[in-house]
């Protein structure tokens, strides 16, 4: 089913919820949690962990939190993600997640989840119009990239 690939599998999602609960308690990931995360996400976890050290994560949200957008900036690269939707415009997502299905998600999506758990996600409140502008800008960027 084509749309199935857009949703993070339940097992992975439960694991992230688990990881979040543990992190809140101990302020770090236990070796067991890291092992389970690695079992589910494979090397994407390693790359996501590297990103946590180098990248910046920003969540734009409207005041009622109904609409949200996450921006991940890693050196010169920038990706826009959506909360609760497993999708990214990067090449890895296109080939490894959607085509070969080797992995559940890409490092950007996973890193954003981890950044949220570790409190590394900055939040900026925006209006509905500002959020719409950000979205439009994003589509224009990627429209150009794909041609
Ligand atoms: Zn990505």
Automatic annotation (TrEMBL):
<dbReference type="GO" id="GO:0000724">
    <property type="term" value="P:double-strand break repair via homologous recombination"/>
</dbReference>
<feature type="domain" description="SWIM-type">
    <location>
        <begin position="79"/>
        <end position="117"/>
    </location>
</feature>
<keyword id="KW-0862">Zinc</keyword>
<keyword id="KW-0863">Zinc-finger</keyword>
<keyword id="KW-0479">Metal-binding</keyword>
<protein>
    <recommendedName>
        <fullName>SWIM-type domain-containing protein</fullName>
    </recommendedName>
</protein>
<dbReference type="Pfam" id="PF04434">
    <property type="entry name" value="SWIM"/>
</dbReference>
<dbReference type="InterPro" id="IPR007527">
    <property type="entry name" value="Znf_SWIM"/>
</dbReference>
<dbReference type="GO" id="GO:0008270">
    <property type="term" value="F:zinc ion binding"/>
</dbReference>
<dbReference type="GO" id="GO:0097196">
    <property type="term" value="C:Shu complex"/>
</dbReference>
């Amino acid at each position: 089913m084509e749309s199935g690939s857009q949703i993070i599998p339940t097992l992975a999602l439960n694991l992230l919820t688990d990881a979040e609960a543990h992190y809140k308690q101990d302020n770090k990931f236990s070796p067991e949690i890291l092992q389970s995360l690695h079992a589910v996400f494979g090397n994407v976890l390693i790359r996501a962990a590297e990103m946590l050290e180098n990248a910046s994560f920003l969540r734009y949200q409207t005041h009622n939190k109904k609409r949200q957008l996450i921006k991940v900036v890693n050196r010169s690269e920038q990706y826009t993600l959506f909360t609760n939707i497993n999708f990214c415009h990067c090449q890895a997502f296109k080939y490894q997640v959607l085509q070969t299905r080797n992995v559940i998600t890409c490092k950007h999506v996973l890193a954003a989840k981890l950044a949220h758990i570790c409190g590394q996600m900055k939040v900026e409140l925006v209006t509905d119009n500002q959020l719409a502008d950000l979205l439009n800008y994003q589509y224009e960027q990627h429209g150009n990239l794909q041609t």
